[in-house]
Specification:
Layout (H helix, E strand, L loop, with lengths): L1 E10 L2 E7 L4 E5 L6 H13 L18 E10 L2 E10 L5 E4 L2 E2 L12 E4 L11 H15 L1 H23 L10 H37 L6 E6 L7 H7 L1 H7 L10 E6 L2 E2 H4 L2 H23 L4 E5 L7 H10 L5 E5 L3 H5 L6 E6 L2 E3 L1
Parallel strand pairs: 3-13, 3-14, 8-12, 12-13
Antiparallel strand pairs: 1-2, 1-4, 4-5, 5-6, 6-7, 9-10, 10-11, 14-15
Helix pairs in contact: 2-3, 3-4, 4-8
Length: about 350
């Protein structure tokens, strides 16, 4: 699969933009704060309905405007797809596929699979558990529509349960309704736990081999899914913790507190690893994500690299560039020196200056 073109209107710092992409490697270069990342973000938004930065739709609209329009043309095999997105400041977004409006954003998933890699991802290991959960959620939502449903419903019930826990101080009689929410929370929570467990198992062998190569055979990386509670124990754990939940006015047990551990040569590098080890493990994780998506969808995903090369040493640059051979890639950078020094094949180059793009 690959993206043929992008059109933007009143998106971020772009009043109007039309770009034709090559199905190989596309370089966007220019100084910082010119709008390079905004183009990658617009691709991600069109493919997943959300920004990789986690911002609201209204923050994606150009300053002073009320709405923004995005369109990408995707070719998947011999089948063309047009994805249109209409962002509005005070109303839900509108999405259409080949001119036909869709009711749920989940209907968008699977048309174009994207893997986004930014410098922030290199801190995935040393940052808190919420970052690692977000990594799992962003990828699983593209790969599994059942997971999207389970996660959305779990988060909805969790928010309602937490609201109820806060209200109990004023209305203790509401406690008798908690069983209704707990049944739903356990049902959807078990599904979330099981999907995440399977996803990490699928990544396990891939990341081990990739990390061994990145470290020159000096390090063995093992990843483990760490559910806050096992699926079969969730119901009982929720019952045991109810008094504490009421006391603290929040749900303390469940997959919203899950984590993933990264063990290098027997050491948990989340806490005790060097910065170099953490960054290498993060790179291994993103490369294994890329390989897993290829295996599961039986096609090449679209790779978005946001100024990552400047954060890597030369050997890791070469490892990354060799991994993207044959995949449509859109790369942002401030200069072309890294690609020249690595003798990397570039198919199309764009210069970005203050919201305008030229070839």
């Amino acid at each position: 699969m690959f993206i043929e073109s992008i059109e933007l209107q009143d998106y971020r710092n772009y009043q109007e933009l039309h770009m034709e992409l090559d199905e190989g490697t596309n370089i966007l270069y220019g100084d910082n704060a010119q709008g390079k990342t905004n183009i990658l973000e617009s691709i991600y938004v069109c493919c997943t309905s959300k920004s990789h930065r986690g911002v609201r739709d209204r923050d994606l609209i150009r300053f002073g405007q009320e709405e923004a329009h995005l369109r990408i043309q995707v070719r998947k095999g011999n089948v063309p797809y047009r994805i249109d997105m209409h962002l509005k400041k005070n109303k839900p977004k509108g999405i259409a596929i080949n001119g036909i409006p869709i009711r749920r954003a989940s209907e968008l998933f699977g048309i174009a699979n994207v893997v986004f890699f930014s410098p922030e991802d290199l801190n995935l290991i040393k940052n808190g558990p919420s970052e690692r959960r977000r990594f799992i959620d962003l990828e699983l939502c593209q790969l599994n529509k059942l997971y999207v449903h389970s996660l959305v419903q779990y988060n909805r019930v969790l928010a309602q349960r937490n609201r109820l826990l806060k209200d109990l101080s004023f209305h203790p009689e509401y406690e008798e309704t908690m069983d209704v929410w707990d049944i739903q929370l356990v049902n959807y929570g078990k599904q979330v736990i099981e999907f995440r467990s399977q996803f990490i198992l699928q990544l396990k062998d891939l990341i081990q081999e990739i990390h061994r190569s990145l470290s020159g055979g000096k390090e063995e990386l093992l990843i483990h899914y760490e559910p806050h509670t096992e699926a079969e124990d969730f119901e009982e754990a929720l019952k045991r913790g109810r008094k504490q939940d009421i006391k603290q006015k929040t749900t303390l047990c469940g997959p919203h507190r899950d984590d993933v551990s990264f063990i290098v040569n027997g050491v948990d590098i989340r806490r005790y690893g060097s910065q170099g080890q953490q960054r290498t493990a993060a790179l291994s994780l993103k490369l294994s994500e890329l390989q897993l998506v290829k295996l599961l969808i039986r096609d090449d995903p679209i790779l978005l690299l946001d100024d990552v090369l400047s954060e890597l040493d030369s050997s890791r640059q070469k490892q990354l560039l060799s991994a993207i051979n044959g995949i449509q890639t859109v790369i942002t950078c401030t200069g072309l020196d890294d690609f020249v020094s690595n003798r990397f094949k570039i198919d199309r180059v764009f210069q970005v200056i203050n919201g305008t793009v030229s070839i």
